[in-house]
Structure formats: C-alpha cells, structure tokens
Write a structure and sequence with these properties.
Elements: E1 2-5, H1 10-28, H2 36-41, E2 48-49, H3 52-67, H4 77-82, H5 95-103, E3 111-113, E4 116-118, H6 131-145, E5 151-155, E6 158-162, E7 171-176, E8 183-189, E9 192-197, E10 203-205, E11 211-213, E12 228-235, H7 238-251, H8 253-263, E13 267-272, E14 276-280, E15 287-289, E16 297-301
Parallel strand pairs: 14-16
Antiparallel strand pairs: 1-5, 2-4, 3-4, 5-6, 6-9, 7-8, 8-15, 9-12, 10-11, 12-13, 13-14
Helix pairs in contact: 1-6, 3-7, 6-7
Bound molecules: adenosine-5'-diphosphate (ADP) and magnesium ion.
Length: 303
C-alpha cells in the first residue's frame, strides 16, 4: 500500500490511516484467529456476533452478490483455495473436487441479522474481493475529516483519490497493460475510486501449459473466461468499484454493458481478448491510449 497525502495535516492524518487499516485487517483477515471472519468461518453453523463494521461490509457484499446474480460471491473462497491461490501451492482441481466445493458455495445461505452471522457448517467467507475498496472509502473519509483535501491512495492496486492534485489538475492514472509490461494508457480522474481486476494480475501456468487466474466464475468453479482480460471501474465509492471490477470480469462484455445501462452510478473501461477497448460514455474523454497501443480499437458504450 502507498498512501500519499498533501498539506499541513497530511503527516498526522497518514499515521491515523495506517492504524485504521491495521484495525480493519484485524477484523476481516481470514487467517488471523482473532478476526471476525475467522470466527464466523470456524462457527460450525452456529450464530456468531461480529462488529458493526464487519456487518456493514458483509451486508454490502451480500447485496452486490444478489445484484450481480452471483457473479460476485463472498463464499467462493474454498474454490479459490482449492486452486492454490491462498497457499501458493497451485494445482488444477478435479471436476469432482470442484463439484463438491460448489455445494458449499452460496451467498444466499449466509444469514446476517443485525450484527449476527449464521452460515452452514463448511461454508467459508472471504471479503477479499471488496475489502480493499471498502478500506479505501474509510481512509479517504478519515483523511477528509483530518483536513486533507488532496491525496492519492494505492491500496493493493485499488486507487482512491481525495480531491485533485495539489496544483488543481486531475490525477493521471496508468491503466496496466493486461497483455504484458507497462501501461495501456492514462485515465484522468478526481475524487473517487478506480479499481482494476484481471486474471493477468495473479495466475499460474498449469501442467497443461494453460494459464489459470485468480478470478473464478462461481457458477462453474473454473476461471472466468468471459472474453475480458481487464476491467476497470470508476465510481465515487471504492467498495462499489471493487465489487464490480470482480463481478463484471466474470460477466463479460455483453452482460456488463447491460448491467451498466440498468444500474448506472459508475463508469467502466473494459479490455477484451481481441485487443479492443470499451469505454462507457462518461469517461470517453478521460482516457488516452499510449502510442504503443494505437492499433487498438476503442468503442464507446452509450445509454
Ligand atoms: P484483488 O483483490 O486481487 O485486487 P479482486 O478485487 O478482483 O482482485 O478480487 C479477487 C479475489 O477475490 C481473488 O483473489 C479471490 O480470492 C476472490 N475471488 C475470486 N473470484 C471471485 C468471485 N467471483 N467473487 C468473489 N470473490 C472472488
Ligand atoms: Mg474486486
């Protein structure tokens, strides 16, 4: 994580931010035995109390799972674990293994009543696909309360901006080239968040020579192969960006465009495996392709 804030109150505000991030990590970590999520995952089907903040992010994750028809599923982690993305001991699970694990994957079976969570024995929660975005929102808010008017937060690749650059111009963000080194182009933005997901970020090469990435389609247990190679979501709230970048990656281009038209409230930049870029109309003028990629076709998605 790299947190950059400007102005007189920046230094003290950043110290507070660091403490706050550690607090949130301690609540939502899947491996820390004292975390809320660990407690729920070890509950064996019994009802467990969690902190207000955990209840809030869990409610958000469950709502987004519902809204994206399960493309985002906060109970997918046993499948992600089976592929080795947690331990780093990568392997291709058998079809049977995945079928078994998918029996215990279903956000609809997570019951959240105020601050109490009940979930079937064997089910596992992981807020990994939304936690960084939510953290970005909380830290941006904290910085503003401390009087910071200009800051750029990079929370594990999730970008959160407070205001504009100190000179009053917009932030210039590099969108990573999903096909290799360097950046595809520059996106100008301000006050809000930009989050990118792609299977090029974390993957392994299987014994069959194929590339296997960390974003899973919850309907199959296999890698999302939607024709998209990178999804960037731009919106005021980091949590929405984070949830949608993962979910829209799973959906693919057509479903993504439909989702955007139906829901709105965000913009997106999609890169397909056919070397095309799709931008929603609200950011049409904000993105500049690097010269190196000038052969890529840019399409604009309109309402
Ligand atoms: P990252 O957090 O690595 O920047 P994402 O926000 O796209 O990237 O989250 C991907 C992580 O979420 C994966 O590493 C995995 O742990 C988990 N995950 C993978 N597929 C899904 C999914 N369909 N729904 C929810 N979480 C997922
Ligand atoms: Mg995400």
């Amino acid at each position: 994580m790299t947190l950059t804030a400007y102005g007189e109150s920046a230094e003290a505000a950043l110290t507070l931010s660091e403490d706050r991030i550690k607090e949130l990590e301690a609540l939502w970590s899947t491996t820390d035995e004292n975390s809320d999520i660990y407690k729920v995952n070890q509950s064996g089907g019994t009802r467990k109390e969690v902190s207000e903040e955990t209840a809030e992010i869990l409610q958000f994750a469950l709502d987004m799972a519902e809204e994206t028809n399960g493309s985002l599923d906060p109970t997918i982690s046993p499948v992600v674990t089976a592929w080795g993305f947690i331990s780093g001991e990568y392997h291709i699970p058998t079809e049977n293994e995945l079928t078994d694990l998918l029996q215990n994957t279903d956000y609809e079976k997570v019951l959240l009543e105020e601050n109490f969570v009940t979930m079937p024995d064997g089910m596992q929660l992981d807020l990994g696909a939304v936690g960084k975005g939510y953290t970005g929102d909380i830290i941006a808010e904290l910085l503003k309360e401390q009087g910071v008017t200009s800051a750029l937060l990079d929370i594990g690749g999730n970008i959160q901006m407070v205001g504009r650059k100190p000179d009053g111009s917009r932030w210039r963000l590099g969108i990573q080239n999903p096909f290799g080194e360097g950046s595809l182009g520059v996106l100008e933005s301000e006050e809000g968040a930009v989050v990118t997901s792609g299977n090029y970020e974390r993957y392994f090469i299987g014994e069959d020579g194929k590339q296997y990435g960390h974003i899973i389609d919850p309907s199959t247990g296999y890698q999302a192969e939607s024709g998209l190679v990178s999804v960037s979501i731009i919106a005021k709230e980091g949590k929405l960006c984070d949830a949608l970048s993962t979910a829209i990656y799973v959906m693919g281009l057509d479903e993504a465009a439909e989702y955007w038209k139906d829901n709105g409230g965000f913009e997106m930049l999609l890169v397909t495996d056919e070397n095309e870029i799709y931008l929603t109309e609200g950011i049409e003028d904000d993105f500049t392709l690097n010269e190196k990629f000038s052969d890529m076709e840019i399409h604009v998605i309109t309402q």
